[in-house]
Write the structure tokens for this entry.
Amino acid sequence: EQLAILSLWLRSGVFRCAHHCMLLRRLVLVILWFTLEVPGQPSMENEQCNNDDGSGSCGAKQQEWEPKSMSVVLPCFNEEKFAIQTVKAVYNSVPEDILKEIIVVDDGSDEDLGKTVLLSKVRKKYKVKLLKHKESQGLIKAKFTGGFAATGDIIVFFDCHVSPIKGWHAIFMDKMRTNYRRVVVPRITNLDIDTWKEKYAGGDAGFSSCYMTWDVDFKWFDAPDEYVPVLSGGLLGISRPWFNETGGYDEQMIGWGGENIDQSLRTWLCGGEIVAAMDARVAHMWRTPDDPRTLSKKPANGYAAIRNKVRAGVAWMGNFSKKFSDFDMMEHFKNNPVELGDLSNILDVSRKRHCRPFAWFLHRFRNVYEDGGLLPSETFQLRLPGRKKCLQFLGAAGTSQTGVGRVKLVKCNAKDDRQRWHLGNVDLQSGGKGKCCGGLRAWNTDQCLQPDGDKIATGVCDISGKKVAATAQRVALSAEGHLQFQSPYTNTQCAELSGKQFRLKDCSSVQAEGGVWERTNSEVPIETKLYREALSNADWQHVR
């Protein structure tokens, strides 16, 4: 109606004038184009929410819109059979009037997908738009290419080996309708590649939520609500306006790895949010060494992945990137800006959108970083006075490549970070009330102490504290100095050195020389110092 009135007004005698009047008419049209609400597009009101308490309700300004269509982007490399199966599964799971297109980005496959499984008649039947890189440029650039080629209101990124369960699209659209700045992730389940159907393992099976560790890696965890700190990677939905506003992906990242961290931080810090659609299930093929068909056709480039993570960390974490000095390769890239590359494309987004500081993210997810022990009040050595030695984690800083680790009693060295431990994992037992902490974590790793039969070892920390029955990571140093391992199935046991091995035994029979410990050489770690400083100096007072 407003446009109709405008049209009549512009055609009236008032505007039947010479050249200068024509320029005025164009100016009026331009102004109204940016002020009138266009159906199907979000209202671009306030960039940030005032009085944001970090709870999520205001963390992303609620921007309602009416999405009508979606594009699904599939980055593919040498996945001929998987590619066509995924295309069919996506096409059959979304109504014709909603699915705008399936964009397959052939990232330089050895065999052109357009000449093998995605022939012209197949593309026409399944609404496929095929884009091709002459040479492989990696997953991130393939997603970049596909994302900016998409024309649907919602852009969905899937891997080239998935099968979405019918109904997922409606849940995505419903979740995103209330806020165009909302990124949605599905519940990711297991795919049977022989039947291309979900391997059903119960209604609670699957994963959605991840958190970020200090080496800028991601870990799955059981989140307490629908809000997701960090994306796992390849399966998500994002509105096309928000994708464009936030710059999509960092085109200077190489290969794959780290793009999920970058996208997560640019979403949360720049006024958006990430939520899990737990009823939207997408079966995904996991790569397992016992089935060669699932293995990647392109070897992972560890150098590129670390570089990508450091790019995201340096750009979004600010002073907290000082933490990279605890991780050798990360410190290398941070100190070599030529290798790291130009960060202006990310920094420009941060400036233009007035993005928040990284400490806001830590406080927004304080249930992870404070309650889960990733901002420990202190790190310390565990010393066995009777032997004048300390407990050491036998592994490198960062993510364990095997998911497990070992410990050993060695000569104490206060400068050896592998001898530093701290409290970790949310405590949901014995009146813990969901606060820190119920376990012991090796500093700068993803490993927590846990039993291994009658011995002690480490495993990936259950930061949520919800799987303590399975992990038995409820570990504490008692007032008597006993290293106690509590299990819901057995009596509390304590670790005692027997020969060269630690053995778990009844705490009442533990001998002082081999089983009474003490904390020593306590220090406040740099990450906690930076966090406290950021809170005390914050001009975003709502985080207090």
